[in-house]
Design goal:
heterodimer, A: 332 residues, alpha/beta, Rossmann fold, 7-stranded mixed β-sheet, 5-stranded mixed β-sheet, 36% helix, globular, B: 346 residues, 6-stranded parallel β-sheet, two-stranded antiparallel sheet, 11 helices, 8 strands, 41% helix
């Protein structure tokens, strides 16, 4: 790695290490986080610094150790629980939805669950239909938890501390294609409050709203469109629950057009929620129907070309934006 | 099974521990206390059943009647710093843990003065001051939480132990096995209490478990485990005293299977097609309250006047609890989302 740059993987690693140095209540647990170094190598070396008592390898018991994380949070600790992938997190869905999300409200405000659950999500590594899905919206559906999708190196580096400081359970999604991304060394100022959506590229003619692993695709599409003289705004949601609807509406009210890019499946997607909210609140601002690009409704297949065909791609975004703005590809 | 004499010695002083094997040596006052605790639960729930038919209490109502010896026996040996987790059949645990009866009744009424602002109802009673963590209506759902609470205590060097109650139906769930493995692996200060009442709703143990002796499953994880007569409060207390002391001494998790029986249906909607009334009657004959009462009578340790006074005290407490619940207000609809998320930094 070049000097003064940081990878997404190292950003998460540093965020965990920093939190653990600053607060003895913080510990990391999950499958292969210790001796193996994490299935995406995020926690490599942490065991040497903090020992197996704070970098805890767990058996393959997602429900058990996520529930233990919830209990430990109730008992005064600040656990970070790592789940290998969102697909495996379904084994812990009971604990997250029935316990973590409910306890504060159901107990009349007596029980808090200050827990962070990190997990990998998304496609792109040819891992096929049981390791590649984007189920962020399943979690974003549930009141009582918060859902984050850090898409930049700065967010990967500094959002974790905000999540740990939050009094409620936070589910944090790391897209698998981001781990090797690098950027100039960020500062805390590069990571605004975790609840806020951030305009990554300002524009006037259309709002491209996205999150996580699709942010890079949206920015690339916006750059290509700019070369054709079109001004597209890219809004990075960052927080999927609660949604920063004020920022969403402000952007759409300005540009009057909306395209949501979401790697989740189309039906019942987060993109659907955003389109609905925009239709409800920005109807009179709109110059075109809200649109969305989502994954094709099939289990993500293994072969490269089919994996690409199943998920949102840059050219798709470019073509759809051109259509919405009444332009044909290659014309100005 | 005839009512067996409690394995106790009547002495003038109360609870005496011997060096390695603490045995409760019980005096009359302690035994009367046990009886009163069980009567509180029994009469409270009888009142609940009545209030349910009057539609003051709605939703699911799972009564603990018949199983009181388990909650009462175990709670005797717990300290304020210990954590308790329970199931949706938790009125008995809540009362025995010392939750205010009025707040529990108000919770069943759905009033804001209830222990969970009325939001949880019968199945979700909480009291963070008493370290009473519910009230969990997902079978086996509290076991991983108990692992985490015990882990937190251990990591922070706190003295408390965690006690997790669950029914034998939970044993078929994966979370049961995951939790036992984690607790034993990490040597956590945790007592698992399986209340084996023989039926998971209407499914008899014999048709749901390949190994019907639950404590043997715990032993297979290397955990110290045994079965105890859950209809005998003194037996339960003695076993709990021994196990909790061992846990406090750093002996890791322990597992107690309490064989018991629920005299009422699973909930108020249960027509009990899965068992005979003869079976229920047979168990009622060896119920925890009648067993202790008879033993005390036969040993001239409980006069009719004393029993009457106990019943009277309990009735008064219940009457005030019902009054408190009736006086309470329902939570304002404008507060529906109040406290969904916490405030500020931690």
């Amino acid at each position: 790695m070049k000097e003064n740059t940081l990878s997404y993987r190292d950003a998460v690693h540093e965020a965990i290490a920093e939190a653990m140095r600053q607060d003895e209540r913080v510990f990391l647990m999950g499958e292969d986080v210790g001796n193996y170094g994490g299935c995406y190598a995020v926690s490599k070396g942490l065991s040497a610094e903090f020992g197996p008592q704070r970098i805890m390898d767990t058996p393959l018991s997602e429900s058990g150790f996520v529930g233990a994380g919830i209990g430990a949070a109730m008992g005064g600790m600040r656990p970070i629980v790592e789940i290998m992938t969102v697909n495996f997190s379904l084994l812990a869905l009971d604990q997250i939805v029935n316990n973590a999300a409910t306890l504060r409200h159901m107990s009349g405000g007596q029980i808090g669950v200050p827990l962070v659950i990190r997990m990998a999500t998304g496609s792109g590594k040819q891992l096929a239909a049981q390791h590649s899905h984007s189920l962020e919206n399943w979690y974003a559906h549930v009141p009582g938890i918060k859902v984050l999708a850090p898409a930049t190196i700065a967010d990967a580096r500094y959002m974790l501390a905000m999540a740990l400081a939050d009094p409620d359970p936070v589910v944090l999604f790391e897209h698998v294609m981001l781990y090797n991304e690098t950027a100039a060394l960020p500062t805390p100022a590069d990571c605004p409050d975790m609840h806020k959506a951030v305009v990554r590229k300002s524009g006037t003619q259309l709002s491209l709203i996205t999150y996580g692993g699709s942010l890079g695709k949206a920015l690339e599409a916006a750059t290509l469109l700019q070369e054709q003289g079109l001004s597209v705004e890219v809004l990075d949601l960052r927080c999927l629950r609660p949604l920063d609807t004020a920022s969403i509406f402000a952007s759409v009210d300005k540009t009057k057009r909306l395209l949501v890019v979401d790697e989740g499946w189309r039906t019942g997607s987060l993109a659907a929620e955003i389109c609905a909210a925009v239709a409800e609140h920005c109807f009179w601002s709109l110059d075109a129907p809200p649109q969305r690009i989502c994954s094709v409704e099939v289990p993500i297949p293994y072969p490269r070309h089919l994996e690409l065909a199943a998920t949102p791609q840059v050219q798709q975004i470019v073509d759809l934006v051109l259509g919405l703005l009444g332009k044909q590809a290659g014309t100005k | 099974m005839p009512a067996r004499l409690p394995q106790i010695v009547l002495v003038k002083k109360g609870f005496v521990m011997t060096s390695n094997h603490p045995k409760p040596h019980m005096d009359k006052a302690h035994l009367h206390g046990l009886l009163k605790q069980m009567l509180r639960i029994r009469r409270f729930e009888e009142k609940c059943a009545e209030l349910y038919t009057q539609q003051q209490i709605r939703g699911f109502l799972h009564l603990y009647i018949g199983e009181e010896a388990v909650a009462v026996g175990i709670m005797q040996v717990l300290d304020p710093q210990d954590a308790v987790l329970s199931t949706y059949r938790e009125h008995g645990h809540a009362l025995a843990r010392g939750l205010d009866m009025g707040k529990v009744m108000a919770e069943l009424f759905g009033k804001v003065s209830g222990s969970s602002r009325g939001r949880g109802g019968s199945m979700h009673i909480f009291d963070s001051d008493k370290r009473f963590y519910g009230g969990n209506a997902i079978v086996a759902g509290a076991l991983p939480l108990a692992v985490g609470l015990a882990l937190a205590d251990k990591m922070q060097g706190k003295k408390g132990i965690t006690v997790c109650f669950f029914g034998e139906g939970a044993v078929a769930e994966g979370e049961f096995h995951e939790s036992l493995n984690l607790a034993q692996l990490w040597q956590l200060p945790l007592l698992f209490v399986c209340e084996n009442n023989g039926y998971a709703m209407g499914t008899a143990l014999a048709i749901s478990e390949s190994q019907p002796h639950i404590f043997i499953k715990a032993q297979s994880y290397g955990m110290q485990a045994e079965a105890v007569n859950g209809m005998n409060v003194v037996d339960v207390e003695a076993a709990a005293a021994r196990y909790c002391q061992a846990i406090r001494d750093g002996g890791g998790p322990h597992f107690l299977e309490c064989n018991t029986y629920r005299f009422r249906g699973h909930s108020m909607f249960d027509s009990q097609l899965y068992r005979t009334s003869e079976e229920v009657q047979q168990w009622q004959g060896k119920g925890p309250i009648v067993q202790l009462q008879n033993w005390l009578h036969s040993n001239h340790a409980l006069s009719s006047a004393e029993l009457q006074q106990l019943e009277l005290d309990v009735q008064q407490e219940i009457a005030s609890a019902v009054d408190f619940a009736e006086q309470g207000e329902f939570e304002d609809e404008s507060d529906l989302c109040l406290g969904l998320y916490g405030q500020g930094l931690l």
